[in-house]
């Protein structure tokens, strides 16, 4: 029990528990070596699936279905990427990627503007029902999309927006709005209102003070929040599956799934190439904002 | 301010030496400002209009629709225009007297509980490990964690599905050739519900541990060294140091991450749905989220599906309530 919860204590055994500084130091060094070795093993475990996806994507399809397993793409090929990108026999990748990009970017742009205005309202003004609004935002965020998919499907259908990019975008804006407002609220709060007041004393209007003083300081927060939203919309699967099932209106996750339906004849090498293409932008963006991700997630409860 | 803010706000980046300072929502000045802040007349309401319209249209209206539908007979005929008849609570009665629903519910609860426990235990262990690592190794492990965390859930599921493939999966290959476990030759992992959920659990835990580990690690860096040293001099062993000093510091983060894990794991959709595509038996592996989809979208019974959705939402909302209360209490709103 202690070994897992407080590493570093039991490694050297009871003999080393004596308080003498020399053995203590040696024990610490030994422990550090042990923990470092463990961290390498854990790194391998966590990174392996990602490696395996990329590795498979560069191997010929007949080879990955052979009796041998290739832990390294010795017969490196780009054929799978070619298949995924240009094979006329399949639902093509490029339109799906374009759909994903259009929906995601529009979602982020619209949500940022709307959320920004709302964040301003709740941080810079005291007004009646302000608290109610903030709590409503938190509650809305916790309503599971899985429970709502049926009724959202019917509402979007009622507006004749099924299988359109606009319909999906509207739904995504509503999906990312609560956490975008919540995170931006934190960032705006981080800029002291005193700065604006000082600018107003110097003759700026309220809006002008905000635009010239606070907005530049918020830029990093806006970028981080935008990236969160991008990842969420890019990865979203349930709503896209329900609302945009028509081949020419699919987004990447729904497109990727079509590879699986042909059971038994799944082209694993190609689907790994497709997965890689879908994952790379997310991984790049993610590494870019990862520091803020943890606190953003805890306070904003993104994901899912 | 409670300890959470101390623990959460200065998000410690996984990259050594880089410490990003997130905004401080509950700084002491907010109290002072609240007295000075203008009421602004109509301005704040105007600023809220765009967001409110979208949320009302895509959350509020569907929510009302959902409640209405759940009390209607709403099948394929109604989708094609027949007027739906009100049956009031008949759908709910049907769902709540259906053994299949209880199977799905129990499966979801047990599966979520398992995932949450394993995720939290591993996440805590990894956080403590991160704290003890020298710089370079910490960076390496952080990179591995970030890769797992960043993978889109669908890609992750597909990749793991491929790794557990019956004929050409690397898992079977290694089990047979490296460990000599011949019984795994052509072993089919997804066909048995139990091992199906084992694979699903591995995917979910693999993707969720990084978040828990980083959040707890950020909290750990806030525990003052002097207090720990003092307690060590007083003769506190490793475990009691953790229980008496470290854990109280981590408790708020622990609580929030656990609640979030419960919510996410209870409503899990993507991983289960995609694994079923790869080779699971749907009837034996449905969880709440997937079941709603099967009954309403695939099965065309929107009335019953609506009732299941409302019940699911109520279960999740009761868990969420803890989270919302906690957040409202901590942030000076």
UniProtKB/TrEMBL annotation, chain A:
Coiled-coil region: none
Pfam families: BPD_transp_1
ABC transmembrane type-1 domain location: 97-289
Topology term for the membrane: Multi-pass membrane protein
Chaperone recorded as keyword: no
Alphabetized UniProt keyword annotations: Cell membrane, Membrane, Transmembrane, Transmembrane helix, Transport
Family annotation (InterPro entries): BP-dep_ABC_trans_perm, MetI-like, MetI-like_sf
Membrane-crossing segments per the record: 30-52, 96-121, 133-153, 165-188, 209-234, 268-289
Record's subcellular location: Cell membrane
Assigned protein family: Belongs to the binding-protein-dependent transport system permease family.
Name the UniProt record assigns to this protein: Carbohydrate ABC transporter permease
Lineage: Bacteria, Bacillati, Actinomycetota, Actinomycetes, Micrococcales
From TrEMBL, chain B:
Any matching Pfam family: BPD_transp_1
Keywords, alphabetical: Cell membrane, Membrane, Transmembrane, Transmembrane helix, Transport
Gene3D superfamilies attached to this UniProt entry: MetI-like
Membrane topology (UniProt): Multi-pass membrane protein
InterPro entries: MetI-like (IPR000515), MetI-like_sf (IPR035906), UgpAE/MalFG_permease (IPR050809)
Membrane-spanning intervals of the chain: 42-64, 109-130, 139-163, 194-220, 241-264, 302-324
Region feature Disordered, mapped onto this chain: 1-38
ABC transmembrane type-1 domain residues: 105-323
CDD domains registered for this protein in UniProt: TM_PBP2 (cd06261)
Keyword Isomerase among UniProt keywords: no
Domain of life: Bacteria
Subcellular localization: Cell membrane
Family affiliation: Belongs to the binding-protein-dependent transport system permease family.
Protein name (Swiss-Prot/TrEMBL): Carbohydrate ABC transporter permease
Source organism of this protein record: Agromyces aurantiacus
Phylogenetic lineage: Bacteria, Bacillati, Actinomycetota, Actinomycetes, Micrococcales
């Amino acid at each position: 029990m202690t070994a897992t919860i407080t590493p570093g204590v039991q490694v050297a055994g009871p003999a080393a528990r004596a308080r003498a500084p020399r053995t203590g130091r040696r024990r610490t060094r030994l422990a550090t070596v042990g923990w470092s070795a463990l961290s390498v093993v854990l790194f391998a475990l966590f990174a392996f699936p990602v490696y395996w996806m990329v590795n498979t994507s560069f191997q010929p399809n007949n080879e990955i279905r052979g009796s041998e397993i290739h832990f390294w793409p010795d017969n490196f090929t780009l054929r799978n990427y070619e298949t995924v990108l240009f094979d006329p026999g399949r639902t093509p990748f490029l339109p799906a990627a374009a759909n994903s990009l259009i929906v995601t970017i529009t979602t982020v742009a619209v949500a940022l503007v709307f959320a920004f205005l709302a964040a301003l309202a709740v941080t810079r003004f005291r007004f009646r029902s302000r608290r109610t609004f903030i709590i409503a935002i938190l509650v809305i965020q916790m309503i599971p999309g899985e429970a709502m998919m049926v009724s959202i499907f019917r509402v979007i259908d009622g507006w004749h927006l099924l299988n359109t990019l606009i319909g999906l975008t509207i739904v995504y804006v509503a999906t990312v709005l609560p956490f975008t407002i919540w995170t931006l609220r934190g960032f705006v709060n981080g800029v002291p209102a005193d700065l604006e007041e000082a600018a107003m004393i110097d003759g700026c209007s309220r809006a002008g003070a905000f635009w010239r003083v606070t907005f530049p300081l918020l830029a990093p927060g806006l970028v981080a929040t935008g990236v969160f939203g991008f990842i969420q919309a890019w990865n979203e699967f349930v709503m896209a599956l329900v609302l945009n099932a028509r081949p020419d209106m699919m987004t990447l996750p729904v497109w990727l799934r079509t590879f699986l339906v042909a059971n038994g004849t799944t082209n694993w090498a190609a689907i790994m190439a497709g997965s890689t293409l879908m994952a790379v932008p997310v991984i790049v963006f993610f590494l870019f904002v990862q520091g803020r991700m943890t606190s953003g997630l805890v306070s904003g409860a993104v994901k899912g | 301010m409670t300890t959470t803010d101390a623990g959460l706000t200065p998000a410690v980046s996984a990259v050594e030496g880089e410490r990003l300072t997130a905004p401080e929502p509950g700084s002491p000045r907010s109290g002072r400002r609240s007295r000075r802040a203008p009421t602004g007349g109509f301005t704040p309401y105007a600023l809220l209009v765009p967001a409110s319209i979208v949320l009302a249209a895509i959350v509020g209206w569907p929510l009302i629709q959902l409640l209405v539908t759940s009390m209607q007979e709403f099948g394929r005929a109604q989708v094609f225009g027949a007027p739906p008849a009100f049956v009031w609570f008949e759908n709910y009665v049907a769902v709540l007297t259906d053994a299949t629903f209880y199977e799905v519910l129990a499966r979801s609860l047990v599966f979520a509980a398992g995932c949450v426990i394993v995720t939290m235990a591993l996440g805590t262990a990894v956080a403590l490990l991160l704290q003890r690592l020298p710089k370079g190794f910490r960076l390496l492990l952080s990179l591995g964690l970030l890769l797992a965390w960043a993978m889109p859930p669908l890609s992750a599921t597909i990749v793991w599905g491929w790794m557990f493939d019956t004929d050409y999966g690397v898992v079977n290959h290694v089990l047979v050739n490296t460990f000599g476990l011949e019984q795994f030759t052509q072993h089919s992992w997804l066909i048995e519900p139990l091992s199906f959920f084992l694979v699903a659990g591995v995917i979910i835990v693999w993707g969720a541990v990084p978040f828990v580990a980083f959040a707890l690690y950020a909290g750990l860096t806030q525990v003052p060294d002097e207090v720990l040293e003092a307690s060590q001099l007083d003769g506190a062993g490793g475990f009691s140091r953790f229980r008496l000093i470290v854990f109280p510091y981590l408790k708020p983060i622990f609580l929030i991450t656990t609640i979030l894990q419960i919510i996410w794991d209870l409503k899990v959709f993507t991983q289960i749905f995609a694994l079923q595509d790869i080779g699971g038996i749907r009837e034996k592996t449905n969880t709440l989220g997937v079941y709603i989809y099967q009954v309403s979208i695939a099965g065309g019974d929107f009335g019953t599906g609506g009732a299941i959705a409302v019940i699911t939402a109520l279960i999740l909302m009761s868990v969420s309530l803890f989270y919302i209360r906690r957040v409202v209490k901590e942030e000076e709103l």
